[in-house]
Each structure stands twice: as structure tokens, then as C-alpha cells.
Amino acid sequence: MRIAIINGSPRGKDSCTMRMAVPLSQGMTDAGAQVNVLHLAELKPLPCRGCFSCWFRTPEKCVIDDGYNEALASIAVAELIVFAGPLYHYHMPGLMKNFLDRTITMAEPWMVPDQSRGGISKHPPRGKTINSVMLVSPCGFPEVRHFKPYSDWFKAYAQMTGLKWAGEVLRPMGELLRAEEMQPRLAGYYTDLRAAGAEVVREGALRPETEIKLQRSLVEGGAEEFRAMANRHFAKILG
Ligand SMILES: Cc1cc2nc3c(=O)[nH]c(=O)nc-3n(C[C@H](O)[C@H](O)[C@H](O)COP(=O)(O)O)c2cc1C
């Protein structure tokens, strides 16, 4: 299985997102997959101009010369796409949205009924390689329900575009992944992430119980302890 991880964190390689994605991809590799990571903070994709040149004048190619076409060529050969990035205002960061909007290059303009989904209209995909999608996301707050709008949106996106949903790895308290003093307490979490990566490759999707296990609190006292820790940290910075 070929897998592309799209890292949409503006922090790039030094992000909570990558602290999740690295062990996950190690597990994927353990299970025999080939993993390719695209850091959008390096690509800096510009917004789609809505010119539809990629449909009518330069088929498949975006006219914006910012490296998008080359980056897409490297991920379009994957069967599984992992959208990895932080939760920003209950949704994806702008970098990720810029990239996602540009992937309109991957569809043909025709409107056809999708018989497998009750005849709803869709644009046929140009390539048939990508068949499933997965979400990986850290957030700042301690409760997993902050992800609900984003998770619901992503599942709907997968369904509407005819992609199989391969699961989600959601990480409340995400900033703890970058705290050096936390690292000894995170060994078990990273081991579970690695096992989850292998699970996705072997089974085609994460098991629901694996998703829930990976959402567990990283501190014993749950949200209350986490808020107190965070507020002490903020007070120290603010002086
Ligand atoms: C502009 C902005 C918006 C954010 N919005 C949310 C939010 O809606 N909910 C939340 O829990 N955290 C929010 N956060 C916190 C990030 O999700 C959190 O810091 C995450 O761990 C960053 O991951 P990264 O290092 O991979 O970029 C926001 C951060 C920024 C900078």
C-alpha cells in the first residue's frame, strides 16, 4: 500500500501533528506500506483562483506556479491519503484548505449521478488510485468533542467524494506532545500510535476501539488538571 501524509501544520516538521504522524507512519512502514510525507508549510500552497483552467484550458494542471502540480504528482499515486494537521477554529488550517481546494485538478468537469450513493451528482475523479482517506489531528483543548464539527465534515467529504473512511486519530491536549517533561509519560501513547499505523495498513481502517484508545487523557486528572497546567504555563509566560 502506498500512503501519502499531508502535513497541514504551519509549524511544519516541528509540530504536534508530526509527533503523531511519525510513529503512525513507522507503524505503516512496519506493516509493509510505502509512506511519503508532504509538508504544506514548505510548499506554501496559494489559494485556488477559481479560474477552472485545470478543467478547460490546461486539463489536470493548475496554472498557479507554486509547486502544487509537482507535489500533487508525488501524492496522487497513493491509495490512502492521510490529512494530518491541527484543529483551527473547529476546522482545518488555511494551508490545508488551500491545498484541498486546489485538488479540484483531480476531478473532471462532467456531472454524473453516483449510483452507489442514491444518484447524487459528482465529478468523476481523473485517477483511480486514491481510494481511502484518514484524519490525524491534535488540538489545544482537553476535550475530544472540540473535534466534532471537523470530524463530521471530514466523514461527509469522504462520503461525497466516494472515498473510503479509514478512521481518525484525534488528540486533545495536543500541545503536551511538544513538552519535553511529558516525553517519559508519552511512551505508551507513541507505541499505540505505531500499532495503529500498522492496523490501518493490515485492516484497511482503524478499529473504533483503537480510535477511542488514542483519544485518552494524557494526564491523570483529565480536563481539570490539564486546564490548571495550561494556565500555570500561560501565567509564567505572561509574567
Ligand atoms: C489560529 C489557531 C486556532 C486554533 N483553534 C483551536 C480550536 O478551535 N480548538 C482547539 O482545541 N485548539 C485550537 N488551536 C490550538 C491548536 O490546535 C493546537 O495548538 C495544536 O496542538 C497545534 O498543532 P501543531 O503543532 O501540529 O500545529 C488553535 C491554534 C491556532 C494557532
Protein architecture, described:
The model has no long low-confidence stretch (mean pLDDT 96). The termini are far apart. The longest helix is centred in the C-terminal third of the chain and has 17 residues, at 187-203. The protein is α/β, with parallel strands linked by helices. Helices cover 39% and strands 16% of the residues. It is built from nine helices and seven strands, in the order E-H-E-H-H-H-E-H-E-E-E-H-E-H-H-H. The structure holds flavin mononucleotide.
Integer tally of domains: 1
Look at the structure and give the mean pLDDT.
Answer: 96
Number of strands: 7
**Strand adjacency order, main sheet:** 2-1-3-6-7
Report the portion of residues in β strands.
Answer: 15-25%
Termini separation comes to: 51 Å
Order of helical and strand elements:
EHEHHHEHEEEHEHHH
Please mark out the parts with pLDDT under 50 across 5 or more consecutive residues, or reply none: none
The helix content, as a percent range, equals: 25-40%
Oligomer state of the chains in this structure: single chain
CATH topology: Rossmann fold
Ligands, ions, cofactors:
flavin mononucleotide
CATH superfamily: Flavodoxin domain
Radius of gyration: 19 Å
Q: Specify the number of helices.
A: 9
The profile of the biggest β sheet is: 5 strands, parallel
Q: What is the 3D shape?
A: globular
Category from helices, strands and their pairing:
alpha/beta
Second-tier CATH architecture: 3-Layer(aba) Sandwich
